[in-house]
Amino acid sequence: MTNRTAFHGPGRWAMPLAGLVLLVMAMFLPALPVRAASSIQIDARALVGGRYAVGGWMAISVTLTNDGEPTEGTLAAATESGAVQRFVEMPAGARKVVMLYIQPEAFQRRVTVQYEEPNGTVEAVVETRVLEQTSSQFAVVGDGAGTLRPQLNVGDEIGLPAPLALTLADIPERSEPLEGISALVWADDSSALSEAQRRSIERWVANGGQLVIIGGPDWQSRTSGFTEILPLDGLSAVDAVPQAALAAWSGTDDAAMEDATISTGALRDDARALVRAEDETILASMRSVGGGRVILLGTDVATEAHRGWEGSPRLWARLLPTNVALEQFFGGFPPDEAQNAMGSALGNLPSLEVPPAELLLVVIVAYILLIGPISYIILRRMDRRELAWVTAPLLVIIFTACSFGIGNSMKGSEVIVNQISLIRSSGAGTSATVESYAGVFSPDRATYDVTVEADALLAKMRPVNFDGRPVAASDVVVEQGDPAHLRNLAIGVFGFEAVRADAIVEREAVLSVTWRGDGGELIGTVTNLGTEPIQDVAYVSGSGGDLVDEELAPGENVEFTIDSTNFNGSSASDQVYGFGGFDEANPEQRQSLARRQVIDALVGFAGFMPGAELSSSTSRGPYVIGWHDDPGPLPITLDELDAERYAQSVEVVSVR
Predict the structure, then answer these.
(1) From CA 399, how far away is CA 395, in angstroms rounded?
(2) Phi and psi of 550, rounded to 5°?
């Protein structure tokens, strides 16, 4: 039997009445605004073929188009190293191309780029791929017919990766994203390069890149963007030049073509001819520009006749020699090791020293005696041993506070910024590449904002994990532009974090190096072109080093000789500063230790094969360096904080 209960009274009308009241109230409430969809269209593309070096920078070109009302927002991309962003205003009908520079993780394959504005968020995904870390990576610009890459794709036997095919649009406006490329073969219209792209290539060459420009009948368009760095002056085309000399230089008797139209001219003072025809016409020439080289190949080898020519492998092997086989045998120098060495140099601060062993022993013995025998004896003489339950915790708290006070007095209460800047300059121009590193010590748990008054690429230095465990993602946010800001740098109590800033600045070279031969010896002369003395001028390379002068006054010069039989195997830093001298309590020795660690970051920790540094392709020098006691042209500061500062900078001149 089912019992049914009827609703009587006002209860049965409660729900309908409540609904009616809500309906009436809704009629008088103002309408909520409807959020429109974003009218921004976004397209993103990674430059340099979407490739990046491990630990290096990748450039992303983002095109934003506004088909609606004016708006503004933030363009951002995030990796494990943190987020980078730029503020972008978008008027109605605007179309803007904005650059983002990020540091992808090793083997990261995709990066998401977002533009967030009040009406919504739009995003695009960029495909990426890491460059080979232990091999020389070549790239070809302007190989539309596909005749150059097959000539360069001959390195499988020694582990060289296939050459990249790039276009003018793949060339970034900064040199940092090109760091993983060891050589560019140019067969495109260089007059179409923007001024920023042209300067980017020049700085990349000065930092150690190799640029090979293909001449021939199209020499004017191919060379017009590189006039200042070409090895030849007064270029012109010469018809019907025999190619037998080029064939002989390439190790074959048969030339790809009997004669050809070539581009040639007069050698500049600091250039040399690689190949001459029988009538002394220059077929190939080379000029050192900073740490790199510019080669002009007068013959147009971007032809079908040269594609399958038997002399092509030897020709390119001589034009672009590589130390891949040597480094695979003797051991290379991974970027992580250089970063670790720089981190050690930044951490060379009195506040980060380990307490003396004697002090630790005294603290431990005093703690044991106080908690144990002394406390027991006092309580027994007072006949109040039951108070041990109270005195023991109190003594622990008091002792902990005293220990903290001792530690605080040793560490100090000031925020400390320790900056070391590497200034890479050359006589090829009026600009220099600056790598500024800053270590920040904090006595308290705090979050800091970092600023560089320049269009610098800022990033938090990533810790190196040698046990294979993943490194925790960083929460920092980098605002790119001029000035550049790094936000939310979190540091724990008595903690230490490091940041890095990369920029190109207008700066004349301070050190100049010239060479001469004397009786089979290679003698260099280094001159101080600046207005301030330069300390610890030294020659360093992967196979050793030598302290040239402890202090070089303005306008003075000093000679040094390259030791081509340096087989002792010790590091360049040991050969410059000697063994010993590791007393960190001594300010002078602490400074020398930091400089040793910077040399280790530049050229490695141990001797490489002697003579290998004189090759055209190595990342470990040789360099002539000299030191200043100042932060250099790229100071790194903490916002709204007057921190205690230590600073030194090193002039780095490649003498390859």
Answers:
(1) 6
(2) -70, -30
- By the 10 Å C-beta count (0-12 exposed, 13-18 middle, 19+ buried), 445 is classed as exposed
Q: Which of 476, 491, 453 is nearest to 636 (CA)?
A: 453
How many CB atoms within 10 Å of residue 283? 24
Do 138-322 and 40-130 fall under one CATH topology? no
Q: How far apart are CA 588 and CA 584, in angstroms?
A: 9
Q: Spell out the domain ranges in the chain.
A: 40-130, 138-322, 352-411, 413-505, 508-632
In this structure, what DSSP letter does residue 464 have? P
Least confident of 239-243, 250-254, 348-352, 464-468: 464-468
Q: Return the residue matching tokens 């980078």.
A: 84
Write down the pLDDT at residue 30.
45
Out of 3.30.2450, 3.30.420, 2.60.40, 2.30.29, which CATH number does the structure's domain 413-505 have? 2.60.40
Q: Which DSSP helix (H) or strand (E) runs through 210?
A: strand 210-214
Inter-residue contact 164 to 178 (CB < 8 Å): no
E-strand ranges in 95-179 read: 95-102, 110-117, 120-127, 129-130, 138-141, 164-166
Residue 341, pLDDT score: 86
The SS3 of residue 204 is helix
pLDDT in tens, 291-320: 889 999 999 999 999 998 999 999 998 998
Angstrom CA distances, 559 to 46, 526, 533, stand at 46, 6, 17
- Hey, what are 29's tokens? 């409430």
Which run of H or E residues covers position 406? helix 388-411
Please say whether the dihedral angle defined by the alpha carbons of residues 618, 427, 500 and 63, taken in this order, is positive or negative: negative
Using CA atoms in the order 273, 275, 280, 281, what is the torsion angle rounded to 10 degrees?
-90
Which residues partner with 82 through β-bridges? 79
**Of 223, 177, 201, nearest in space to 61 by CA:** 177
- Whether the pTM exceeds 0.85: the reply is no
From CA 496, how far away is CA 489, in angstroms rounded? Answer: 10
Task: Give the pLDDT band (50/70/90) at residue 468.
Answer: very low
Is residue 96 a contact partner of residue 90, using CB atoms and an 8 Å limit? yes
From CA 627, how far away is CA 530, in angstroms rounded? 12
CATH of domain 138-322: 3.40.50.880
Angstrom distance (rounded) from CA 57 to CA 100: 10
Q: Domain 40-130 is of which CATH architecture?
A: Sandwich (2.60)
Q: pLDDT tens digits for 133-170?
A: 666 789 999 998 899 999 887 655 555 688 999 999 99
The token pair at 607 is 């001797």
Q: In what order do the strands lie in the sheet with 82-90?
A: 120-127, 110-117, 71-79, 82-90, 477-479, 484-491, 446-452, 637-638
CA angle 37, 38, 44 (to 5 degrees): 140
Alpha carbon distance 151, 153 (integer Å): 6
Mean pLDDT value across the chain = 83
Three-state secondary-structure class, residue 533 = coil
